[in-house]
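Hi Y.,

Following your request, here is the sequence exactly as I used it, all 93 residues.
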Amino acid sequence: MPYADPRRCPDCRSELTGAVERCPTCGLALRHPLASELFGALTSADALLAELRRASAAPTATPSDSARAISRSGVPLSSSPSKTARRSSVATR
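Below is the corresponding structure, written out as tokens. Let me know if you'd prefer a different format.
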């Protein structure tokens, strides 16, 4: 259910019929400038929620996934040399 729904009161979520000045259930002013600002904020919240749902559905690497990848291949996933490798190459010069 979206947060920004012009058919529902943004406060009590009662169904609204037609263009009403106030919610018939809770009395919230629906034609006030702040009501328009609230509707915009709720629309933004709906967009953010949709984006978060997409991000949550996307596969992400967990530390345990990285550890399994390293143990299988024996090669670190990072392309930069480790501090230990840099120190040993300096020591052998």
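Confidence is low (pLDDT under 50) at residues 86-90.

Thanks again,
Q.
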